[in-house]
Amino acid sequence: MGSAGTLLRMGALALMWGSSFLWIKLGLDTLSPVQLVLVRVLLGAMVLAGLCQLRRLRLPRQRRVWRHLVVAALFGNALPFLAFAYGEQTTDSGVAGVLNSTTPLWALLIAVLIGQQRSMNPLRLLGLLLGFGGTLLIFAPWQAGDLMTWGALACLGAAASYAISFSYIGRHLAGRGLSPMVLAASQMITACGLTVFALPAGGTASVQLEVGPLLAVVVLGVFSTGFAFVLNYRLIADEGVVVASTVGYLLPVVSVLLGTVFLGESLNPRVIAGMIVVLAGVALTRRPDRPATTTALPRNPPPESRPRPRQMR
């Protein structure tokens, strides 16, 4: 993890994913949420499908795989992308990035509910409670007219949708002998088809062509949606899942900084404190369980340590 190349890839990945909330906010100046998401998934699918073509990787042919891909694309792309696009109409991009960081908390909760996580050590339970406590601190429902809006709730729902997708992919698609690149491209192509069904809900509105917002959507689709996965795949292959997962801790920081610098968003101390609490909770939930320690007995103990046979009375 200490190599310069690894640190550069981690920084680039955090910038690509963390900046996606900024690009969404800018793109909404020109496109409706449905239009933005459709362009995003189309560009992402083109990048991933093109890379599969260059590597001579074929898309799956089994109908069963495509049925599972429909569910994965629905909860992993179409729904959360739309939820963030609609949510950021009334929610700051930095807050959206912070709420996105609750995905691991939802993933752990779902794993417990469906039986994938049979037991939970006290630290993970504390992390789960701490993370959702931080989320409650961000929303502050006791303060009327604050962040408890439908937009913020949509962003929180998007994070939960990602978690549902991760759980479903782990059960039905991962470890089936298919390349992660092929699965990602197939899932993004499926997301394009699903997003088309949402066009009647604002997708046919007139578009005002402005260079800045359109460039933001292109960057969102090509880099934050397409090449970001390729970089993540490379990072996992070179350094492992644990190192790659640490990028998630940088995303809310990146989104908050970019929103503050480029959009003039102001975050009050309560939101910053909530972000820190959420990240602390996520860190605790990702702590691995300690393996059970057993004391190995020597095969040939010295004579004085060998148990003596009991005398018959």
Q: What does this entry show, briefly?
A:
This protein has 13 helices and no strands. It is mainly α and 313 residues long.
* Helicity, as a percent range: 55-70%
Shape: globular
The Cα radius of gyration reads 23 Å
Measure the end-to-end span: 66 Å
Estimate the mean pLDDT confidence.
Answer: 86
Number of distinct beta strands: 0
Strand content: under 5%
Uncertain stretches: 292-299, 301-313
- Helix count from the secondary structure assignment: 13
Summarize the main sheet. none
Category by helix and strand content = mainly alpha
Topology as a string of helices (H) and strands (E): HHHHHHHHHHHHH
How many domains would you count in the coordinates?
1
SSE inventory with pairings:
Layout: H1 4-18, H2 20-27, H3 33-54, H4 63-87, H5 93-100, H6 103-114, H7 122-139, H8 150-172, H9 180-196, H10 211-239, H11 241-245, H12 251-263, H13 269-285
Helix pairs in contact: 1-10, 1-12, 2-5, 2-10, 3-4, 3-9, 3-10, 4-8, 4-9, 5-8, 5-12, 6-8, 7-13
